[in-house]
């Protein structure tokens, strides 16, 4: 029963978050050539980097003070011994101008940019590869876009003979004049912390670093990696839980006994484990190819996939509770089993395939849940998830086959295996509601408002607690005469969770569940408003578009249309705080529940800004007169969400949420945008820097 503790680790791991910033536009086309086509070993030659820029766009050079703010153009080389750098990168005739926003002279290129780097050729067939980092900006809109490109120089012919330098006795190893430049260094580290903001974004942003806090966006860039690791951990723990189900656990001794009686048994056991991993990873690969990134928004916000995912989780939950079993056609399973009897290494693979099929009634719901959780248009996530799941699933079979004496310590099969399965069933039912809730919010069905959602969770986890105490029995359970200590401990944890959720029925914020519950604004009776002690924001007295569809948290007063917000900002002479958010955005709800209520944050949002909450996933269709064709993807934008998402991409070069932009009354950025950050002090600094920039 101690192994049942894995179940509660899975609950936490299933709630992994993502927050990745995606740069959308590219306005520089690069070509890479040599200054001459033929050299001798030891000769010098120039690498010529040429960027052709879109009309009205410019690129920053590489030879001005990197501390000013703009991202310098840099080139990083893959280290190898076929060439060496000579001297520094030489930009060819960039323009220079003083930019007040940065408080200094910057250098840039219009139309076309050329950079040259001298190298010495040390061997035949030199390999010259690397990557560039740069920043392009628009003269007209002020928009700035960071960019990167991989480069490779090809076509250089190294002919026989020695160069003039070598003829006087200087070998590459003895070249003293270029010794300091032969090391190939990574020069991008200092640039990655710079923030993309053009002169058009603000007349004063970041002018004085002592007055305006520098907002570091590099933390957001790692969000996707963290999410992938968390998902891999969840998948691995799911594989361990799958081992404890009644379809899998009894098979372990039988499988191990087979390999211990084989010649080369240990090698075959390893092959068996690898085959299990390959089979599940193949499933993940197929899912990733079917999804593709283009389906991300559709899968995460449209009602069809979300209702489908709800149905899948619900059916899997009922299966685990014992209402029925999900099984594959027996003819198919028997055919694979027959192939496993053929022997040899092919037989080992089909034996692993048979295990996957036979255990499907228990592992299928877990695998299906993992694939659903990764189905937001991801390409790598399903593959990583299945590899992690199958690794945990395969390791015990392999280890027990390698060390059969460990079997003596393996617990006996029994009723506890069904307990694991039933507990998973309750968890599947609870998780199913999340998908239905997303569709409910996006389409304004009002089926699962916050208190209704909480009521379901309270009932589900209460029944789980009573089940652990033996007060509820499912069809495959045996009567319980005594309740074991592990079951008592798990029931205590479950009922504690239930007690924690109860105040949420009357408006308690439940910060530990922030992001996984419907918004606070959907609750009918919010007692927390009566006792918070924070005065609600004064109403603007303006009739607002879409106020019947959307509501701001914490009684904040704001707008849901950017044009209305900017018009009102001009009237009251305040900056506009744009909140690019979404109904299905977990991190948005967490920011609203854990950062916005901070007194220092809330006070500034109430008094110093005009708030515009723009939902990028709302499916409310607008009148045909309001439709337009996007200059980004040439598609007609018909809904509130589609137009808000298009604004975020075209104007602010980002498509991740939450994304907070503070702009002037013309819509130009005052400071660099901010994303997911649960530190209220950082958010206060962000708001204060925008206030200072607006006043200047």
TrEMBL record:
Primary localization: membrane
Subcellular location: Membrane
Residue ranges occupied by any Cytochrome C biogenesis protein transmembrane domain in the UniProt entry: 229-436
SUPFAM superfamilies registered for this protein in UniProt: Thioredoxin-like
One of the Pfam families matching this protein, by short name: Thioredoxin_7
Domain Thiol:disulfide interchange protein DsbD N-terminal stretches: 38-151
TM ranges: 228-249, 269-287, 307-333, 345-371, 383-403, 415-433, 453-473, 485-506
InterPro entries the UniProt entry points to: Cyt_c_assmbl_TM_dom, DsbDN, Thioredoxin-like_sf
Entry keywords, A to Z: Cytochrome c-type biogenesis, Membrane, Signal, Transmembrane, Transmembrane helix
Signal peptide: 1-22
Superkingdom assignment: Bacteria
Membrane topology: Multi-pass membrane protein
One Gene Ontology MF term: protein-disulfide reductase activity
Biological processes per GO annotation: cell redox homeostasis; cytochrome complex assembly
Gene3D superfamilies xref list: Glutaredoxin
Gene Ontology CC entries for this record: membrane
Protein name per its UniProtKB record: Disulfide bond formation protein DsbD
Biological source species: Dyadobacter frigoris
Lineage start: Bacteria, Pseudomonadati, Bacteroidota, Cytophagia, Cytophagales
């Amino acid at each position: 029963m101690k192994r049942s503790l894995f179940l509660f680790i899975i609950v936490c791991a299933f709630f992994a978050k993502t927050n990745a910033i995606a740069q959308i536009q590219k306005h520089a086309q690069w070509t890479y050539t040599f200054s001459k086509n033929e050299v001798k070993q030891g000769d010098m030659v120039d690498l010529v980097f040429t960027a052709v820029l879109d009309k009205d766009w410019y690129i920053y050079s590489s030879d001005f003070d990197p501390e000013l703010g703009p991202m310098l153009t840099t080139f990083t080389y893959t280290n190898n011994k076929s060439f060496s750098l000579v001297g520094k990168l030489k930009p060819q005739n960039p323009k220079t101008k003083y930019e007040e926003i940065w408080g200094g002279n910057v250098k840039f290129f219009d139309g076309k940019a050329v950079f040259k780097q001298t190298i010495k050729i040390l061997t035949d067939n030199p390999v010259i590869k690397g990557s560039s980092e740069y920043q392009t900006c628009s003269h007209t809109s002020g928009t700035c876009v960071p960019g990167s490109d991989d480069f490779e120089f090809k076509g250089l012919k190294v002919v026989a003979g020695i160069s003039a330098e070598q003829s006087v006795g200087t070998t590459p190893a003895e070249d003293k004049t270029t010794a300091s430049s032969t090391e190939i260094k990574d020069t991008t580290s200092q640039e990655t912390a710079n923030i993309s903001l053009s002169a058009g974004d603000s007349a004063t942003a970041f002018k004085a670093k002592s007055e305006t806090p520098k907002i570091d966006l590099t933390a957001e860039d790692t969000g996707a990696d963290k999410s992938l690791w968390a998902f891999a951990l969840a998948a691995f723990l799911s594989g361990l839980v799958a081992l404890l189900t009644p379809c899998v656990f009894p098979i372990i001794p039988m499988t191990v006994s087979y390999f211990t009686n084989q010649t080369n048994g240990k090698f075959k056991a390893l092959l068996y484990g690898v085959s299990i991993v390959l089979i599940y990873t193949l499933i993940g690969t197929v899912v990733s190819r079917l999804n593709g990134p283009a389906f991300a928004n559709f899968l995460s916000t449209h009602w069809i996939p979300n209702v489908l995912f709800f149905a899948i989780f619900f059916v899997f939950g009922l299966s685990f509770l014992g209402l029925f079993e999900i099984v594959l056609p027996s003819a198919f399973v028997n055919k694979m089993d027959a192939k496993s009897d053929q022997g040899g290494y092919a037989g080992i693979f089909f034996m692993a395939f048979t295990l996957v099929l036979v255990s499907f009634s228990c592992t299928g719901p877990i695998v299906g849940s993992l694939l659903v959780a990764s189905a937001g248009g991801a390409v790598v996530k399903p593959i990583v998830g299945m590899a992690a799941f199958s690794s945990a699933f395969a390791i015990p079979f392999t280890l027990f086959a390698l060390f059969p004496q460990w079997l003596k310590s393996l617990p006996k099969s029994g009723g506890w295996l069904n307990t694991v399965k039933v507990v998973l069933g309750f968890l599947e039912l609870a998780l199913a509601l999340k998908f239905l809730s997303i569709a409910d919010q996006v389409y304004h069905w009002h089926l699962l408002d916050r208190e209704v959602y909480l009521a379901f969770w309270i009932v589900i986890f209460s029944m789980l607690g009573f089940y652990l105490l033996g007060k509820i029995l499912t069809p495959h359970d045996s009567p319980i005469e005594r309740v074991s200590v592990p079951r008592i401990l798990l029931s205590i944890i479950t009922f504690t969770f239930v007690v924690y959720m109860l105040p949420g029925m009357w408006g308690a914020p439940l910060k530990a569940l922030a992001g996984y519950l419907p918004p606070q604004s959907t609750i009918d009776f919010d007692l927390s408003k009566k006792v918070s002690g924070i005065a609600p924001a004064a109403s603007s007295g303006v009739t607002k578009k879409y106020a019947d569809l959307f509501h701001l948290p914490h009684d904040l007063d704001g707008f849901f249309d950017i044009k209305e917000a900017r018009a009102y900002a001009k009237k009251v002479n305040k900056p506009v705080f744009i909140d690019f958010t979404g109904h299905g955005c977990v991190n948005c709800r967490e920011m609203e529940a854990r950062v916005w209520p901070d007194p220092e944050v809330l006070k500034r949002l109430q008094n110093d800004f005009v708030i515009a909450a723009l939902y990028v996933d709302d499916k409310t269709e607008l009148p045909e007169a309001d439709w337009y064709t996007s200059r980004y993807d040439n598609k007609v934008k018909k809904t509130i969400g589609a137009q808000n998402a298009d604004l975020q991409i075209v104007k602010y070069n980002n498509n991740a949420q939450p994304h907070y932009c503070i702009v002037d009354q013309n819509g130009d950025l005052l400071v660099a945008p901010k994303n997911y950050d649960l530190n209220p002090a950082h958010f206060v600094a962000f708001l204060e820097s925008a206030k200072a920039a607006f006043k200047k």
